[in-house]
Design brief:
alpha/beta; Spore Coat Polysaccharide Biosynthesis Protein SpsA, Chain A; 2 domains; 7-stranded mixed sheet; Glycosyltransferase, GT2 family
Length: 253
C-alpha cells in the first residue's frame, strides 16, 4: 500500500469555463513537490487546461455534480493505484498566497502522520461537523475503513443535489469520522478566545442582533471560518470566497 505519496484532489467548477489564475499559480507550485500528486477533477468545461503543469492530471467528472462528486471521482481514480493518503479541497478556496498555502497543504499532510483525519475547521453551525472545503484523510492502518469508503463511493457514484451534499455528507462528517469509523482527528484552524470574540462581533454586525438570537445565546454555534477571513488568509494563504447558502436555509428551518 502506498503511504508516502499524498494525493491532492482539487474539485473544480467554473461558470466561465476558465481556471482562475490563483489555482494555476498554486498548481505550478505544488507540482514542484515530489511527495504530492494532484488530480484536478472538474464539472462542466475548462478551456485553459493547457496551462496546467504536466504532472497535474485533469479528470472530467461525468456525473456533473458538486464537489462531493469530484471528490468521489478523484478518490476512486487514486485507489486504482493503491493510494491511501488524501487531501481534498474545492474551488471555494481562493489561494491569495500560493507559497503560504503550499505550507498549509504540507502541514495538513504531515499532521496525517499523527491522526488519520485532519480538518481545516470544525463548525458547530446547525450541528457539529467538519467543513468540507479542505480536509485530509490517511487510510494507512485503517484498511476496513478504506474498503467501506471505497464501496460507498462506488455505490453512490451519481449526481447529488446540493441539499444531499450538505445534509448527507458535510453535516454528518463528524459522526462518520468519529462515531462510525472511530478515527482520531485534528483541526488546523483553532482561533484563540480573543480572535473568536472578534469573529463573533463580525457575525453580529453582518447578520444583525435581533434575527440571530441563537447566535447571541450560543457562541459555539458561530461558524468562525466565515467571519475571520483576514486571519485565515494571513496565516494559511487563502480565503473562502463562497458561502453555503443551503446552511442558512437549514438554519432557518
Amino acid at each position: 500500500m502506498e503511504t508516502r505519496l499524498t494525493t491532492v484532489v482539487f474539485a473544480m467548477y467554473e461558470r466561465n469555463a476558465t481556471l482562475r489564475e490563483d489555482v494555476i499559480a498554486f498548481l505550478n507550485r505544488i507540482s514542484q513537490a515530489s511527495d504530492f500528486e494532484v488530480f484536478l477533477v472538474y464539472n462542466g468545461e475548462l478551456s485553459n487546461l493547457d496551462r496546467l503543469p504536466s504532472s497535474v492530471r485533469s479528470i472530467p467528472n461525468p456525473t456533473q455534480g458538486y464537489d462531493l462528486n469530484c471528490y468521489i471521482r478523484g478518490f476512486l481514480e487514486a485507489r486504482l493505484t493503491g493510494r491511501a493518503r488524501f487531501v481534498f479541497l474545492n474551488n471555494s478556496v481562493f489561494i491569495s498566497n500560493p507559497e503560504v498555502f503550499m505550507r498549509t497543504i504540507l502541514s495538513m499532510s504531515r499532521k496525517l502522520e499523527d491522526n488519520p483525519f485532519v480538518a481545516f475547521s470544525l463548525s458547530h453551525e446547525i450541528r457539529k461537523h467538519f467543513q468540507s472545503f479542505l480536509f485530509g484523510i490517511d487510510f494507512t492502518g485503517h484498511e476496513q475503513v478504506m474498503e467501506t469508503v471505497t464501496d460507498t463511493c462506488v455505490r453512490y457514484d451519481r449526481a447529488f443535489t446540493r441539499e444531499e451534499v450538505i445534509g448527507l455528507f458535510e453535516l454528518k462528517s463528524y459522526d462518520y469520522v468519529v462515531k462510525d469509523f472511530k478515527l482520531g482527528f485534528s483541526v488546523m484552524f483553532q482561533p484563540h478566545l480573543l480572535t473568536k470574540l472578534k469573529g463573533y462581533l463580525a457575525f453580529l454586525l453582518r447578520l444583525g442582533f435581533l434575527d440571530n438570537m441563537r447566535g447571541l445565546i450560543h457562541l459555539d454555534r458561530v461558524n468562525f471560518s466565515l467571519f475571520l477571513k483576514n486571519d485565515i488568509e494571513k496565516q494559511f494563504g487563502f480565503r473562502k470566497i463562497k458561502s453555503t447558502t443551503v446552511l442558512n436555509k437549514l438554519n432557518e428551518s
